[in-house]
Amino acid sequence: MFGEPNVQEALRWWAPQRGVWTPVGWKSHLFRFDMFYNGTMVCQPAVALPVGHPKPYLDAYVNKDFQVTPVMPDRGVIPPMPTGRYYLYKGDFGVGIQGWQQDKHTPVLWTEHRRQEGVVLRQSVFAHLRGAPDVQTALEPIYAWTRFSIEQVSEVRPPASFSFVLRLSKAYIKHRIDPPQQQDAFVTMEVIPATAPLDTTLKIEQVFNPGPEPVPARVFDGAGLVRMAVSVPGATTLTGANGVYDLTVNIQARKGAYVDVLVPMLPQPRAEIDAELALGYAGALAQAETYWARKPATAASVSTPEPYVDQFFRRSVQLAEIIGEKSPDTGKHTFLSGSYGYDMLWSTPTSMVSHMFLDLLGYHDVVASHLELYLAVQGTVEPPGDDYKQFSRDGFFATPAQLQPFHWLSDHGAILEAAARHVLLSGDQAFLNRWLTPIVKACEFIQRACQYQGHAAVKGLMPPGKANDTAQVQQAISSQAWIHRGLRTAVQLLQRISHPRANEFAQLADSFRTIYANTLRQEATTAPRWTDPSGVKHPILPSKFYGNESAWPDLEAFDGGALMSVYADLLPADDPLMTSFVEFFRVGPNVANFDPAHHTALDRVVLDHEQSSGEPCYSWNLFHSWQRGDRAHFLEGLYGLLTGAISPDTFISGEHRHGMYGTLFTQPLITWAARHAVIDDAVTLGELHLLRLCPLAWISKDSETVFDKMPTLFGPLSLRFRLSADGKTLNVTHSALAQSPSRITVHRPPVPGLERLVVNGTEVN
To answer: Which helix (DSSP H) or strand (DSSP E) does residue 223 occupy?
Structure first.
C-alpha cells in the first residue's frame, strides 16, 4: 500500500522456513507437546537438549519420551521405517501446511495433509487438563487431543476410504548441535532411527462396535498403562517390529468424517484415561475454550487491517505462557527460553519476553509472577568472572542454578531491566514494595563492580566476565550494554519515586556512559577498516574491550557488538560510529559473501531486509532506525521480522532461520517496534508521540485500527484511527492518561492525498 511494505509483500521476501516445530500445551505446565511441520508429535517430558542436565526434578522422566508420526501412503504403500540417519528436512523439504484454528480461543494447531489419493486430511491438535484448571503442581496429567478429519474429497476419481499409519516410537527426531554439514542450519533436526525403539511392548484392545458412533480402543504398554487411545471404527491393526509400532487408521472418504486420537504425555492408568475419554474431543475443547477465553483486566488488544498482525499478537501471548513452567522444586513460575531444545532459562534474551513483550501488552500479573524466582537467588550466585571474587556479590541477579544452562554476566542487567521497567509500565505498588530494596542492591552491586580497580580491563566499567555460551571471559560490549540498560531504567524508576539515592546512581550511569563512549572511540582509532561504496573507510567496531576471541566471532560481532549501544542508551543513533557501523552490515564486504539460500547463523552476518542473518532477535539496528526516524529502514525491519524471523504459519520463533524453533526470541522485538511505531513514550524523555512511524498498511478506509489499553510510561492509553472514505481525513482518538506528558505529538503519516488530521474531534496542523 502506498509503496511501503506490508505483510503480503514481506511474505514474498523469504523462502519458507524449514524444520519448524511449535509447542501445544497449557499455561505453566511442566510438559508440552511439540508439533512438527509435518504433523509429528513429540512427547518429551524431560529436557530435550540438556546442557549439564540442570533440571534435577526431570530425572524421573528421562527416557519416557514418545513420538507419534503420521505416515501417509505413497502410491498406496506406507513407507517403511527409515534405517539411516538424515537431516529431517532432506526427507520432505522441511515444509508443511499449518495454522491456528482462528474461530477458537484455544490454541488448536492444524496441519493439512494434501494427498494425491484425492483427499485433504486435516490434523487438529490441542492440549487439555481435565476441568481446565490453572496448574497447581504443574504435573497434572496433560493430554493432546487430535482429530484427523476429511476436509475435502476430490470429485475426480474420489476414493471410498483413506488409510494412513500412526507410527509409534520413542522420539527419534533429535538436535544436531555439533558442527553441521556445510551450509546447513547451525542447529538442525536429525532423524536418528536407532533411537526409535520403545522400551516396552504395545498392544491394542479388541473393541466390538456394532453401532455407527466411534468408540475408543486403548493402546496398552507392557506395564498395563494406557499409552494412547483411538476411536473405532478407524483403528484397525497395530503391528510392531523392532520396538516401533504402526497403527493403521481407516477413514471413510467423506467430508466431515473423522477419527479422534488421545495421547497423554505419560502413560496413565485406565481409570484416568477413561475419565478423559468420557469428555470426548468436543467436551475437552469446550473446557479449554473457557480457560483460554480468560484474560487479565489490564490486557491490551491490537486490531489492524492486517489479520496476520492481529493473529501474531493473539497466539504469541498464549505461547509465552505455554513456553514456561511452574518449577516443582520451588513452586515458582518461570519463562523458558524454548520448548524441545532450549527448555532452560537464558535470562538475558528471555527477559525481553517481560519488558519488550508481555508488559507492553498489559500482561502485568504474568510478568510479576515470572520474575519472582529471581528474588530468592539474588546475591547467592557467584558472578561469572574471577575478578568478582574480590568484592561482595550482594545484590547480584542471576538465573537459578536448576534452570541455568550457561552463566552470563549480562543476566544481572537484563533482570534489573525487566524488574524496573515492569514497575514503570504497570504501576504495580505491591511489586515495587517487594522489589525496591533488591533493585537498590542491584545498583549497588554495579557501583562496587565499576569502582573495583584490580582487573586488567577498562576501569570504571564492569570487569570481565562470561558473556555468552562460549564461556570466554571478556569485557564484552553485550555485558556492558545490558548492565547499563538495566541501571539506567532503575534510575528512571528511582527518580520517579523520588528515592534519596536516585541522583547517586544517575551519576554512576553517566560516568559509565562516558567511559564506555570514550573507550569505543579509542578502540575505533586502531580498529580494522572497511570501505563503503563511495570509497570512504570506516572502523569495524569491536565486540569487546578485553579478552580472547570467541569461537563465533561473526555472530558475536552483531548479536553482542557495538550496535547494542543505541538500545542501551550508551550512544545516540546519529553518532558517526553508529551510522557507519550499521551501514557495515547493510552494504559492507560481508554482503558479497551472503548467500541467502545457504547461509547459516555462524556465517558472516549481514542485514537481510533489516533482519540479522545471525540471530534475528538481536536486530539492534531497528533501534537505530527508530531513533533517527528512518521510516524506510524501520518498517523494512518490522515487516522483515514479522515474516522472516518467525513461522508465518504458527508464529513460533526460531533462534535463527531454519533452526531451533519452539522459542519466542523474536516476539519481544517485533512487539516493541510495533508499539513504538504508533505509541512512542521513549524517543524523547517525558513526551508522547503518536503515529510517528505507523505503517501505512494500518491506516485504512475500510476498518479502524485499535491499540486498546496499551501500557505506557504515563499509564494505559487507548488509540484509534481510521481514514475517511475519500482518503483526505485521518481521524484519530486517544484516551486520557493517568500522568500528563510534557507534550503529546500526533504525527501526520505520509498518506498520499491526506489533507486533514483530526485528533479527538479537533483538526490539528
So the answer is: none
